[in-house]
Fold this sequence. Notes:
Elements: E1 2-6, H1 13-26, E2 30-33, H2 44-54, E3 57-58, H3 62-68, H4 78-90, H5 93-100, E4 105-107, E5 111-114, H6 130-136, E6 144-147, E7 154-157, E8 171-174, E9 188-194, E10 199-205, H7 209-218, H8 224-231
Parallel strand pairs: 1-2, 2-3, 5-6, 6-8
Antiparallel strand pairs: 1-9, 4-5, 7-8, 9-10
Helix pairs in contact: 3-4, 7-8
This protein binds zinc ion.
Amino acid sequence: MRIAIISDIHANLPALTSVLSTIDELGVDSIYCLGDTIGYGPHPNECVELVRERCAVVIKGNHDSGVTGETPLSYFNDYGKAAILWTIKSISPKNLDFINGLDFVWSDETITLVHASPNDPPAWNYVFTLNEALESFRHFSTELCFIGHTHVPFIVGEDSSVNIFRPEFRCLINVGSIGQPRDGNPNAAFGLLDTEKQTYECIRVEYDIQQTASEIQKQGLPSLLGQRLFRGV
Ligand code: ZN
């Protein structure tokens, strides 16, 4: 089975549609979404509708939770807060209901999905360092755990290996961000897992960044949210 794992779309429709085209070309069996479908970007309704239609599993991220009111606005920086307030005004009641109904964690026999960290998912802890990643293994019991949140892709094995997928070890994998990459590469990122071949790769996809940045400007969202997309920071 080939599974695409997507995260942190952040209401960036050009990035999402480019990634979905790539996913369709690759012929995956299932798409899982790790949350933050909305926030920062100018296309919340289109992105929620596509995710609802295309993804077999969707969980909740901190920006989703900010829009539903579960995570207080004081948690977010000024740019995040401005975008959440704009999203609250722009999202349809049906799409808000969908976001509201999402869970913080999903798992089956082999895979755990969580937006930020398996350690207390609604606390939105960041996993940046190797030590933070290794500590996380105590908080899930499956072979694999997929996360997003930092927008920086990585693979950490329970043997302390970094950025090598070794299926004989349990792995914590950050799939990166579709709508706002922050690893210096502006291309959208997502993960592709092949459970039969036992392979995993992070795939990067070019998209029309200018289109998203222009729409951010047009909607009166903070222009920095568009500018940062060109640099992938
Ligand atoms: Zn995010």
